[in-house]
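BUG: 3D viewer hangs when loading the predicted structure for this chain

Environment: internal workstation, default settings.
Expected: structure renders.
Actual: progress bar stalls at 90%.

Input used:
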Amino acid sequence: MIAQQIRPWDVVDDRVLKAMKRVPRELFVPAEYAGLAFADIEVPLAHGQFMMAPKLEARMLQALDIRPDDRVLEIGTGSGFVTACMAHLGGEVTSLDIHADFTEQARGRLEPLGLTATLLTRDALADMPRPGAWDVVAVTGSVPEMDDRFKALLADGGRLFIVTGDEPAMQARLIKRMPSGAHQEEVLFETVLGRLENAPEPDDFVF
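Structure tokens produced before the viewer hung:
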């Protein structure tokens, strides 16, 4: 997976590569898809959700540059694999998911690995976490257009990864909060990622 999918996608951060190697991905895949744990696909989960493809997970982790003292927020726990990688990279990790079974399954997968994260069942879009409190924010589902509430979550120097737009060409973005309070945005690459649950779709403009 690392040699054939992740490295060719320009992931060179040794800390990210080690985290993805050391976290046993096969433990985070539903039993019926165990044979696809390392495949270059989005593995299906319950509730019509999917795990991100490994190369997308790796690019996101590399872009976020998680440091040992970072306060990390993940919106969309899913299987818990990315949560585990972020906890392995260091920092204080909080992960939110709208589905209680995802939260409980992730907790049961992280604890035997000795990895610590605060796992909460919560719809972030309906009840946003405290603004200005996070060094890293990872949004693991796409949104149709940028919502400034995500930017508001960042502390000075904070980094936000989010995928915006519509199929077939969404944009993965890295947004940094500068000391002045302004935000610096960079489009990293084009991709396709399933919608963040309950993300509002914009009204079509009608002449």
